[in-house]
Amino acid sequence: MPICRFSDAEGNPQFAIYEGSRICPLSSLTDAPVTQAELLAGGAKWLADLPKPSESQWQPAPDKLLPPIDTPEKVICIGLNYRDHAIETGSEIPSEPVVFSKFNTAIVGHGDAIRLPRVSEQVDYEAELVVVIGKTAKHVSADDAMDCVYGYTCGHDVSARDWQKGRPAGQWLLGKSFDTFAPVGPCVVTTGEMTDPSDVRVKMHLNDEVVQNSTTAQLIFNIGELIAHLTKIMTLHPGDLIFTGTPPGVGVARKPPVFLKPGDVCKVEIDGIGTLSNPCVAE
Protein backbone atom coordinates (compact mmCIF):
# COMPACT_ATOMS: atom_id res chain seq x y z
CA MET A 1 0.00 0.00 0.00
CA PRO A 2 1.22 3.58 -0.58
CA ILE A 3 2.98 5.13 2.43
CA CYS A 4 3.60 8.85 3.05
CA ARG A 5 5.11 10.97 5.83
CA PHE A 6 3.40 13.96 7.38
CA SER A 7 3.68 16.29 10.38
CA ASP A 8 1.03 15.67 13.01
CA ALA A 9 -0.67 18.40 15.06
CA GLU A 10 2.32 18.54 17.43
CA GLY A 11 4.78 18.83 14.55
CA ASN A 12 6.05 15.28 14.87
CA PRO A 13 6.78 13.33 11.67
CA GLN A 14 4.67 10.22 11.20
CA PHE A 15 4.14 7.58 8.53
CA ALA A 16 0.66 7.07 7.11
CA ILE A 17 -1.22 5.05 4.53
CA TYR A 18 -1.81 7.35 1.57
CA GLU A 19 -4.91 7.41 -0.60
CA GLY A 20 -4.50 10.75 -2.35
CA SER A 21 -7.19 12.81 -0.64
CA ARG A 22 -6.88 11.08 2.73
CA ILE A 23 -4.31 9.46 5.00
CA CYS A 24 -4.39 6.99 7.90
CA PRO A 25 -1.53 7.37 10.41
CA LEU A 26 0.23 4.07 10.99
CA SER A 27 0.35 4.94 14.71
CA SER A 28 -3.41 4.40 14.83
CA LEU A 29 -2.90 0.80 13.62
CA THR A 30 0.12 -0.17 15.73
CA ASP A 31 1.09 -0.23 19.40
CA ALA A 32 3.92 2.29 18.95
CA PRO A 33 5.10 4.84 16.39
CA VAL A 34 6.69 3.18 13.37
CA THR A 35 10.29 4.03 12.56
CA GLN A 36 11.67 4.20 9.04
CA ALA A 37 14.02 1.31 9.79
CA GLU A 38 11.09 -0.87 10.89
CA LEU A 39 9.06 0.11 7.83
CA LEU A 40 11.85 -0.67 5.36
CA ALA A 41 12.78 -3.92 7.09
CA GLY A 42 9.18 -5.10 7.18
CA GLY A 43 8.55 -4.58 3.48
CA ALA A 44 5.24 -5.13 1.74
CA LYS A 45 4.33 -8.13 3.90
CA TRP A 46 4.51 -6.11 7.14
CA LEU A 47 2.15 -3.53 5.68
CA ALA A 48 -0.23 -6.19 4.37
CA ASP A 49 -0.47 -7.68 7.87
CA LEU A 50 -1.64 -4.41 9.45
CA PRO A 51 -5.28 -4.16 10.55
CA LYS A 52 -7.58 -2.62 7.96
CA PRO A 53 -8.28 1.03 8.89
CA SER A 54 -11.78 1.94 10.00
CA GLU A 55 -13.43 5.01 8.49
CA SER A 56 -12.82 6.97 11.71
CA GLN A 57 -9.05 6.45 11.43
CA TRP A 58 -8.78 8.32 8.13
CA GLN A 59 -8.14 12.06 7.99
CA PRO A 60 -7.83 14.56 5.13
CA ALA A 61 -4.41 14.58 3.48
CA PRO A 62 -2.51 17.81 4.15
CA ASP A 63 -1.52 20.08 1.27
CA LYS A 64 2.13 19.47 2.10
CA LEU A 65 3.74 16.13 2.87
CA LEU A 66 7.19 15.36 4.19
CA PRO A 67 9.57 13.48 1.90
CA PRO A 68 8.48 9.83 2.20
CA ILE A 69 12.06 8.80 3.05
CA ASP A 70 13.79 10.83 5.76
CA THR A 71 17.35 12.01 5.00
CA PRO A 72 18.56 9.29 2.63
CA GLU A 73 22.25 8.54 3.02
CA LYS A 74 22.75 8.48 -0.74
CA VAL A 75 20.81 10.17 -3.54
CA ILE A 76 22.12 8.55 -6.73
CA CYS A 77 21.05 9.75 -10.16
CA ILE A 78 21.36 8.22 -13.61
CA GLY A 79 21.88 10.45 -16.63
CA LEU A 80 20.80 9.83 -20.23
CA ASN A 81 18.98 6.62 -19.30
CA TYR A 82 15.98 7.07 -21.61
CA ARG A 83 16.82 6.21 -25.18
CA ASP A 84 14.52 8.94 -26.54
CA HIS A 85 16.02 11.54 -24.16
CA ALA A 86 19.59 10.68 -25.21
CA ILE A 87 18.54 11.11 -28.83
CA GLU A 88 16.93 14.53 -28.19
CA THR A 89 20.12 15.82 -26.57
CA GLY A 90 22.29 14.59 -29.46
CA SER A 91 24.20 12.27 -27.10
CA GLU A 92 25.48 8.82 -27.89
CA ILE A 93 23.56 5.96 -26.31
CA PRO A 94 25.61 5.19 -23.16
CA SER A 95 27.38 1.83 -23.04
CA GLU A 96 27.19 1.83 -19.24
CA PRO A 97 25.17 3.91 -16.74
CA VAL A 98 26.05 7.59 -16.40
CA VAL A 99 26.06 8.18 -12.63
CA PHE A 100 26.03 11.38 -10.61
CA SER A 101 24.64 12.39 -7.25
CA LYS A 102 22.73 14.99 -5.29
CA PHE A 103 23.24 15.96 -1.67
CA ASN A 104 20.37 15.01 0.62
CA THR A 105 19.90 18.69 1.53
CA ALA A 106 18.20 18.99 -1.89
CA ILE A 107 15.34 16.70 -0.76
CA VAL A 108 11.90 18.27 -0.24
CA GLY A 109 8.39 16.84 -0.17
CA HIS A 110 5.08 17.14 -1.99
CA GLY A 111 3.79 20.73 -1.90
CA ASP A 112 7.14 22.26 -0.91
CA ALA A 113 8.49 25.08 -3.06
CA ILE A 114 11.35 24.70 -5.50
CA ARG A 115 13.54 27.74 -4.82
CA LEU A 116 15.06 29.09 -8.03
CA PRO A 117 18.60 30.22 -7.14
CA ARG A 118 19.56 33.83 -7.69
CA VAL A 119 22.83 32.58 -9.21
CA SER A 120 21.14 30.55 -11.99
CA GLU A 121 19.07 31.61 -14.98
CA GLN A 122 18.60 28.15 -16.52
CA VAL A 123 16.75 25.93 -14.05
CA ASP A 124 15.24 22.93 -15.82
CA TYR A 125 12.75 20.18 -14.94
CA GLU A 126 13.22 16.38 -15.11
CA ALA A 127 10.49 13.90 -14.10
CA GLU A 128 11.83 10.58 -12.85
CA LEU A 129 10.85 7.25 -11.32
CA VAL A 130 12.80 6.87 -8.07
CA VAL A 131 13.80 3.54 -6.53
CA VAL A 132 13.83 3.20 -2.73
CA ILE A 133 16.35 0.65 -1.50
CA GLY A 134 15.08 -1.65 1.26
CA LYS A 135 18.06 -3.92 2.02
CA THR A 136 21.81 -3.53 2.28
CA ALA A 137 23.28 -4.51 -1.07
CA LYS A 138 26.84 -5.10 -2.30
CA HIS A 139 27.96 -7.05 -5.39
CA VAL A 140 24.37 -7.92 -6.26
CA SER A 141 23.57 -9.53 -9.60
CA ALA A 142 20.98 -8.01 -11.91
CA ASP A 143 18.84 -11.13 -11.41
CA ASP A 144 18.81 -10.69 -7.62
CA ALA A 145 18.76 -6.90 -7.51
CA MET A 146 15.00 -6.46 -7.31
CA ASP A 147 14.99 -8.27 -3.95
CA CYS A 148 16.81 -5.20 -2.58
CA VAL A 149 14.08 -2.76 -3.61
CA TYR A 150 11.52 -1.57 -1.07
CA GLY A 151 9.43 0.46 -3.47
CA TYR A 152 9.09 3.44 -5.77
CA THR A 153 8.22 7.12 -5.62
CA CYS A 154 7.99 10.13 -7.93
CA GLY A 155 11.07 12.31 -8.19
CA HIS A 156 11.99 15.61 -9.79
CA ASP A 157 15.65 16.04 -10.75
CA VAL A 158 15.71 19.84 -10.86
CA SER A 159 18.81 20.98 -12.75
CA ALA A 160 20.61 24.31 -13.09
CA ARG A 161 21.92 23.85 -16.62
CA ASP A 162 24.19 26.90 -16.50
CA TRP A 163 26.01 25.23 -13.58
CA GLN A 164 25.76 21.65 -14.80
CA LYS A 165 27.30 22.40 -18.19
CA GLY A 166 28.28 26.07 -18.24
CA ARG A 167 30.87 26.20 -15.46
CA PRO A 168 34.54 25.22 -15.85
CA ALA A 169 34.73 21.49 -16.67
CA GLY A 170 31.01 21.18 -15.95
CA GLN A 171 29.65 21.00 -12.42
CA TRP A 172 27.02 18.25 -12.43
CA LEU A 173 27.07 17.80 -8.65
CA LEU A 174 26.62 21.51 -7.97
CA GLY A 175 24.11 22.05 -10.78
CA LYS A 176 21.95 19.26 -9.37
CA SER A 177 22.35 19.88 -5.63
CA PHE A 178 20.94 23.34 -4.93
CA ASP A 179 18.59 23.24 -1.94
CA THR A 180 15.08 22.02 -2.95
CA PHE A 181 16.39 20.48 -6.21
CA ALA A 182 15.20 16.94 -5.37
CA PRO A 183 11.46 16.86 -4.64
CA VAL A 184 10.18 13.33 -3.92
CA GLY A 185 6.75 11.94 -3.05
CA PRO A 186 3.91 12.13 -2.45
CA CYS A 187 4.22 8.52 -1.29
CA VAL A 188 6.22 5.33 -1.66
CA VAL A 189 4.52 2.39 -3.34
CA THR A 190 6.00 -0.93 -2.28
CA THR A 191 7.06 -3.70 -4.63
CA GLY A 192 3.98 -5.57 -3.44
CA GLU A 193 1.85 -2.96 -5.20
CA MET A 194 4.09 -2.20 -8.19
CA THR A 195 5.40 -5.62 -9.12
CA ASP A 196 6.62 -4.66 -12.60
CA PRO A 197 8.23 -1.22 -13.04
CA SER A 198 9.45 -2.02 -16.56
CA ASP A 199 6.69 -0.19 -18.46
CA VAL A 200 5.37 2.60 -16.23
CA ARG A 201 4.29 5.93 -17.72
CA VAL A 202 6.19 9.00 -16.47
CA LYS A 203 4.91 12.53 -17.16
CA MET A 204 5.88 16.07 -16.27
CA HIS A 205 3.18 18.72 -16.25
CA LEU A 206 4.53 22.28 -16.38
CA ASN A 207 1.56 24.40 -15.39
CA ASP A 208 -1.21 23.16 -17.72
CA GLU A 209 1.04 21.54 -20.34
CA VAL A 210 2.38 17.99 -20.49
CA VAL A 211 6.03 18.54 -21.40
CA GLN A 212 7.41 15.02 -20.77
CA ASN A 213 5.55 11.80 -21.52
CA SER A 214 7.26 8.44 -21.92
CA THR A 215 7.49 5.07 -20.20
CA THR A 216 10.18 3.15 -18.38
CA ALA A 217 10.16 0.73 -21.32
CA GLN A 218 12.53 3.33 -22.85
CA LEU A 219 15.13 2.83 -20.09
CA ILE A 220 18.51 1.87 -21.52
CA PHE A 221 19.52 0.23 -18.23
CA ASN A 222 16.70 -1.29 -16.21
CA ILE A 223 16.48 -1.11 -12.44
CA GLY A 224 18.13 -4.48 -11.85
CA GLU A 225 21.05 -3.53 -14.10
CA LEU A 226 21.44 -0.18 -12.34
CA ILE A 227 21.58 -1.77 -8.90
CA ALA A 228 24.03 -4.43 -10.08
CA HIS A 229 26.28 -1.74 -11.57
CA LEU A 230 26.16 0.52 -8.52
CA THR A 231 26.83 -2.27 -6.03
CA LYS A 232 30.08 -3.13 -7.80
CA ILE A 233 31.27 0.25 -6.51
CA MET A 234 29.38 1.10 -3.32
CA THR A 235 27.22 -0.47 -0.65
CA LEU A 236 23.58 0.54 -0.93
CA HIS A 237 21.74 0.94 2.36
CA PRO A 238 18.03 0.95 3.25
CA GLY A 239 16.54 4.32 2.41
CA ASP A 240 19.02 5.15 -0.36
CA LEU A 241 17.33 6.64 -3.43
CA ILE A 242 18.09 6.02 -7.10
CA PHE A 243 16.71 8.52 -9.62
CA THR A 244 16.47 6.35 -12.74
CA GLY A 245 16.66 9.00 -15.49
CA THR A 246 14.32 11.38 -17.27
CA PRO A 247 12.21 11.11 -20.46
CA PRO A 248 12.53 13.49 -23.44
CA GLY A 249 10.99 16.95 -23.39
CA VAL A 250 13.33 18.72 -20.97
CA GLY A 251 13.40 22.50 -21.21
CA VAL A 252 16.99 22.86 -22.40
CA ALA A 253 16.27 20.69 -25.48
CA ARG A 254 13.26 22.75 -26.59
CA LYS A 255 13.42 25.37 -29.31
CA PRO A 256 13.49 27.92 -27.85
CA PRO A 257 14.61 26.56 -24.48
CA VAL A 258 12.13 26.67 -21.60
CA PHE A 259 13.41 27.25 -18.08
CA LEU A 260 11.52 27.42 -14.80
CA LYS A 261 10.34 30.78 -13.48
CA PRO A 262 8.63 31.96 -10.29
CA GLY A 263 4.95 31.03 -10.34
CA ASP A 264 5.42 27.85 -12.36
CA VAL A 265 4.00 24.61 -10.93
CA CYS A 266 5.72 21.31 -11.72
CA LYS A 267 3.78 18.06 -11.39
CA VAL A 268 5.44 14.67 -11.81
CA GLU A 269 2.82 12.02 -12.56
CA ILE A 270 3.70 8.32 -12.52
CA ASP A 271 1.18 5.54 -13.08
CA GLY A 272 0.58 3.52 -9.95
CA ILE A 273 2.16 6.09 -7.62
CA GLY A 274 0.41 9.44 -7.99
CA THR A 275 1.35 13.05 -8.58
CA LEU A 276 4.17 15.03 -6.96
CA SER A 277 3.42 18.76 -7.12
CA ASN A 278 5.79 21.62 -6.34
CA PRO A 279 5.48 25.37 -7.02
CA CYS A 280 8.49 27.43 -8.07
CA VAL A 281 9.51 30.58 -6.19
CA ALA A 282 12.41 32.98 -6.42
CA GLU A 283 15.11 32.39 -3.82
TrEMBL record:
InterPro entries: FAH (IPR051121), Fumarylacetoacetase-like_C (IPR011234), Fumarylacetoacetase_C_sf (IPR036663)
Key words, A-Z: Metal-binding
Domain of life: Bacteria
Keyword Transcription: no
Pfam families: FAA_hydrolase
The Fumarylacetoacetase-like C-terminal domain, residue ranges: 74-279
Homology family: Belongs to the FAH family.
Listed name of the protein: Uncharacterized protein YisK
Organism field: Novipirellula caenicola
